[in-house]
Amino acid sequence: MIALYTDFGLKDEYVGLMKGVILSINPKAQIVDITHYIYPQDVVLGAYILKSSYKYCPKGTIHLAVVDPGVGSNRAIIAFEMNGHKFLAPDNGICTLLAMEHKFDSIVKVQNSKFFLDSISTTFHGRDIFAPVAAHMSKGLKIKELGHEIDKKDITLLSIPYPTISKEGILYGNIISIDHFGNLITNIDSYTLGNFCGSYAKNIEINLSEIKILGLSKNYQTVKKGFPLAIINSQGYLEIALYCGNAQEYFNVKKDDILKVYTYEMDTFTS
Fold it and tell me: Of 154, 188, 207, which residue constitutes the final position of a domain?
């Protein structure tokens, strides 16, 4: 299976052409669209989505991530294996979170043009390099045949915006994504939040745009329609939502805006 992650959207022909190239090389390839709506050139968001999504695919999946603002430059392309999965991506930091949290079995710098298309555009490596390489991998091509091995320490790593705790004991996070429903996805994961508030022995107050939310909800219906809530979403991150509404519009916020989380003593945890 080949899983696609891109910032191409579906309005234009780019995704379709990549699939066409893959199927022309391997007509039996199974292609799954994870997302084509990563924000344009947003490599950090791509890193979060790649890290949180790959594990829901079967082992042996080839994860093809093309968020590539450096296309046509001297940026490298890397392929590697990890936890029974294979990855193919530009070496621009999109694999940062995977690299920081997991051991890679092997990494190569993709250079063997035998597996590229004959004519290489400087603006569409997704079609001309990534798609054919992924197709050959799906037919059994070994990663080591793609180029020379490199050290994990030599790949590009981004400075990822992690949640921070101030000396006053306030947890700061950022909105990293806004989904189709207007829900606000933050970079605060459940592990970080649990450590911060002591496994919910203390209550939490979330402050966003000077609007306060008390406690975590177990699901969206724990509040009335049109009311805001905080929840740990299906990917394990703190999400700010508006039940039957659009949280982005309600809070008047945008990607990268900051939210604050406070704790205070309470006998019972608000849900």
Answer: 154
Contact of 86 with 80, CB cutoff 8 Å = yes
pTM of the model: 0.89
Helix, strand, or coil (residue 167)? coil
Write out pLDDT tens, residues 148-199: 999 999 999 999 889 999 999 999 999 999 999 999 999 999 999 998 987 5
Give 85-103 pLDDT, tens digit per residue: 999 999 999 999 999 999 9
In this predicted structure, the answer to whether residue 220 has a pLDDT above a threshold of 50 is yes
> ∠ CA 266-270-271 to the nearest 5 degrees?
160
26 & 131 share domain: yes
Task: Indicate the Cα dihedral angle 14, 17, 23, 29, nearest 10°.
Answer: 10
Q: How many domains does the chain have?
A: 2
Mean confidence (pLDDT) of the chain: 94
Instruction: Judge contact between 5 and 50, C-beta under 8 A.
Output: yes
3-class secondary-structure state, position 65: strand
Diameter of the chain measured on Cα atoms: 68
Q: Are 51 and 174 members of one domain?
A: no
d(CA 88, CA 66): 8
270 is a domain residue: no
Buried b (16+ CB within 10 A) or exposed e, 24-62: ebbeebebeebebbbeeebbbbbbbbbbbbbeebeeebb
d(CA 96, CA 179): 22
Spatial distance between the Cα atoms of 239 and 30, rounded to a whole number of angstroms: 32
Percent of the chain with pLDDT over 70: 96
